[in-house]
Design brief:
The chain is α/β, with parallel strands linked by helices and 258 residues long. It is 50% helix and 13% strand. Helix 1 packs across helix 8 and helix 4 runs parallel beside helix 5. It binds NADP nicotinamide-adenine-dinucleotide phosphate.
């Protein structure tokens, strides 16, 4: 028996980490899931484990890939109740040392693709008077992050956009939530060159992908604008809100250099 209010979902970045756990959790609960990413074999492995998983191989850095996912979300014959914009990556290092093409890709995926898919989701959902949109942001969206400058800026965009859309969707029957995880062990650390965090941050600083997924799903169902998994990060985000902006960026810079 499906314990979720949605019958169908589409999850981007479902080939690893938070997105894979999200896709498997939903599929195990009986939700029909469309899994999106570039690595077809990883998506097929999820499809092989469940009855109702559809594989959509797409590179969201390309217009072709974005168009394919938009078309799937817009398909009225097979409506998608929940869209999870999860695909994303970061680039750790001094801004001037990082490859500008890589940074442009980061903005394209974390910002432009997410915006396009959010637009497709709400365009399909609002006339139906029903739907859930969960955009994966980060606690990095709450303050600048020297050495993760572009990443934090993209996530600040995601949180801001999503909070605005939450208000625009008020009263339409569509729920819109920004999921803001803290440190979570996934392939993110390898891809984003932050593997040293495993040694520099203590165990209590880490949340599990399971915890992130459970909290995000509960909060989008509850129609919360913001979802911050873990008591440690809830406390941190409250403290950040009470801290002057200059101090936020200084502390953030010190943490990044530690
Ligand atoms: N892990 C953390 O500490 C943490 C904290 C806060 C927020 N987040 C956010 O959580 C989200 C998921 O990250 P994760 O931690 O689960 O990392 P991950 O394990 O590296 O997963 C990233 C996913 O994004 C997909 N992806 C990357 N580039 C893509 C592209 N061009 N087109 C389509 N899909 C693409 C990857 O699939 P393919 O490579 O197969 O395409 C993969 O499935 C991201 O938005 C990240 O910023 C992570």
């Amino acid at each position: 028996m499906n314990r979720y209010p949605f019958a169908s979902a589409l999850v981007t970045g479902a080939s690893s980490g938070i997105g894979e756990v999200m896709a498997r959790e939903l599929a195990a609960a009986g939700v029909a899931v469309v899994v999106v990413a570039r690595r077809a074999d990883r998506l097929q492995a999820i499809a092989d484990d469940f009855d109702d998983v559809e594989v959509l191989v797409a590179d969201l850095l390309t217009k072709k890939g974005q168009r394919a996912v938009v078309a799937r979300i817009a398909d009225v014959q097979h409506p998608v109740d929940l869209v999870v914009n999860n695909a994303g990556f970061g680039s750790n290092g001094d801004f001037v040392q990082l490859d500008p093409d890589r940074l442009a890709h980061e903005v394209e995926l974390n910002v432009a693709a997410l915006t396009r898919l959010s637009h497709a989701a709400l365009t399909a959902m609002i006339p139906r008077g029903r739907g859930w949109l969960l955009n994966v942001s980060s606690v990095a969206s709450f303050q600048p992050a020297p050495r993760l400058a572009v990443y934090a800026a993209t996530k600040a965009y995601v949180t801001s956009l999503t909070e605005s859309l939450h208000e625009e969707a008020r009263g339409t029957g569509v729920h819109v939530t920004a999921l803001c995880p803290g440190l979570t062990k996934t392939e993110f650390q390898r891809v984003s060159n932050t593997e040293q965090y495993a040694d520099s941050f203590p165990g209590f600083a880490w949340t599990s992908p399971d915890q992130v997924v459970r909290t995000g799903l509960a909060d989008v169902i509850a129609d919360r604008a913001l979802s911050v998994p873990g008591v440690q990060y809830k406390a941190m985000s409250t403290a950040v809100n009470m801290t002057p902006r200059w101090l936020r960026r200084r502390v953030s810079g010190l943490v990044q250099r530690s």
